[in-house]
Please model this.
Amino acid sequence: MYIISACLLGTDCKYNGGNNYCEAVEKLIKGHNYIAVCPEVTGGFSTPRPPAEIRKGRVYRPDGEDVTEGFREGAKMVFNEVQRKSEEGGEEIEMAILKARSPSCGSGTIYDGAFSGTVIKGDGVFAQLLKQKGIKVITEEDIL
Ligand code: SF4
Model:
């Protein structure tokens, strides 16, 4: 079973109310069991919502609001739900395909927290949690 960022499959859960539909992801998962998730929506954030970026391990809105706890909570809730479904179905979580550079889903690179478009090394909150649990994480850019 794969874990997929819901916005990559066309769900309008992106901060600006849109999505990040990616045909390559849809093709890759065809015929494969998967679970589409959005840790920010699960964490209680509305859509649309202001953007967020990670600075020194915490997540901020452009106005300086610290939304770290909501991001962490959403990530944990999604992971618990995925794990429950995996156990119930007797199906191993093979990997996660997540949206590149998102403060939740980004893997390997994220924005630097200054809302300047600058990219640095790092993981989003959800991607980081999955890696800690031993789950392989890639982004849509790895399969393009
Ligand atoms: Fe997409 Fe992840 Fe952002 Fe949700 S939290 S909109 S799934 S990148």
Remarks:
- The pocket of iron/sulfur cluster is lined by residues 5-7, 13-14, 38-40, 99, 102, 104-105 (CB under 6 Å).
- The first strand starts at residue 2 and ends at 5.
- The mean pLDDT is 98.
- The helical segments are 23-29, 39-42, 68-89, 125-132.
